[in-house]
Fold this protein.
Amino acid sequence: MRWSVNWFLVATLVGCDAIPGEQAPTGADDPEASRASYPLQLVDDAGARHTFEAAPGRMISLVPSATEALLAMALDDRLVGRTDYDRMPELADLPSVGGGLQPNLEILVSLDLDLVIRFAGGSDLATAQRLTELGIPHFAVQPDGIEDVLSIIRDLGRITGASDAAEALLSEIQIDLDDVARRVATLSNPRVAYLLGGDPPWVAGPGTYIDELIALAGGRNVFDDLGPLYAPVSMEALLDRDLDLILLSNGLPEPPPLAHVPSAVLPASVEIPGPGLGQAARDIARLIHPGAFDERSR
Amino acid sequence: MRPLAWVTLLGVAMVLVFLLSIRLGSVDLTTGEVFRAIRGEGDLNVRRIIVDLRAPRAVMAILVGGGLSLAGAVFQALLRNPLAEPYILGISGGAATGAVLALALGLTASLSWALPAAAFAGALLAIVLVLRVASTADGGVDVRVLLLAGVVVGAFFTACMSFVLSISDARTVRSTVLWMMGSLAGSDWRTVLMVTLYTLPAVVVLVGLARPLNLLAIGEETAGYLGANVERVKRVAYVLASLLTAAAVAATGVIGFVGLIVPHGVRLLVGADHRVLLPLSFLAGAVFLTLVDVVARTVLSPAEVPIGVITAFVGVPLFLLLLRHSLGGRPGTGS
């Protein structure tokens, strides 16, 4: 019973291309699925259409959340490079291309890559253009909301021929998300803000995975009317929103901006919207509704 | 040293730093590999690194360094003010504002040429605005007003940029700030070609104006008596030097200091004869920026240090040393 609900949710969240006709997530070793996948046509988050004739052998991910997803699918052997932000021990010996935005092109070329996973959006248009000129295939991802993150995992699975691992990962995440949602379903919604730091402080607005996780964890993001994804807000606005709880980004200097509002620091892992999404939902929910996680029996 | 000796020396230096610039980088290559790649042989990826990444970048450093430096030398002669340089005249501010607007409006996502085009339009707007304000009733240009108007227009553009940034989302802010720090990393043959088309003719004409610029340096009235068409020279030189700046900013973002430090350094070494000063400023600027770029992309490899940081770190001590030295040996070498 739970399974069918989960898969329905995944399908709704991820969109129309989700696993039509597949009954159980454990359809893992079904040869039909892997044989049918190439040549594979996918549209990336920058709107570019890609055709994959075979699974790429030599890859690099410039996007930490995508890197984590690839590792979670046990695809370490495909990765031949990393960024300075990837500090996982599995990748420690690989050459770094610098930051994920404006990576070092010389090193990228020297890695002889079949595929680069890069950020979509306007942050780094030059890199996309140069990669095309240099004949290096690149696939753009934009992990803004939960749905984006899940569909990136699914796409990465299909590209690498590891759809089964991807679906297994997705179902694990979904179990966590469902469990959190169930635990907080009947509880009140405290007014929450997520502060990234800065002066004036930056907060998460609608469309961000943090905003969605707060909602899922039974809270209400008081800045769900913000224009852009993340933006600075004045201290006045912060006071005016009548907060019950401030969630602080990991590594922020003390003290929290409002002394009279309780605050809690999120674990660093919450800040990468990748395969740790389920755990992140759990972490946030624990801070918003500590009581909901007290008794083991639920 | 004789002027010709300087030209030869800097010409050779330019070739050498060009070779150095395609020899050194984040990826270790042997000299043999580099030469094979230049001849179109050897590993495809090595060829890509040399031919598609390092070579256009080295050429861009020569064009932008030379162009900014020459523009600075011309502005200093034109305005008879040692502080004059492209950035003080509001031109780079205009270019940067154009670029920031293009980034903030998301034009750059669909059109790859939108950023240089917008930067160029912004620079032109600044030039026209400043020239308009500084134009006198009899069709001349008042250089004091030009300088003041440039500073004020520059400040205005800076405010525009800050405003656009303050209402933009985090992504735009990030990409814009990266762009504003200046970098040669985006150099490909297409941008090199574009910058060459603007730079080469402007350099030729400006160097050709050396004699009237010498006369102008003495004083506008004297120059007029000696047969120079003062107003036309001023106008042509101003527009061309501005175009040099606009092309450089459009291609590489804001790279400061070069237009100020290099021409002054050259002037301290060879004197203020523009027939020598102008070509040498171009060559010295080219050598300087190419070297700086080698440092910028190797010292913290794989990351790159913003090139403006290195131009300041290398250029300022060097310049102060020259200033100090010239005070001891040769007084009175201002323009």
Notes: Residues 3-329 of chain B form a domain with the ABC transporter involved in vitamin B12 uptake, BtuC fold (CATH 1.10.3470.10).
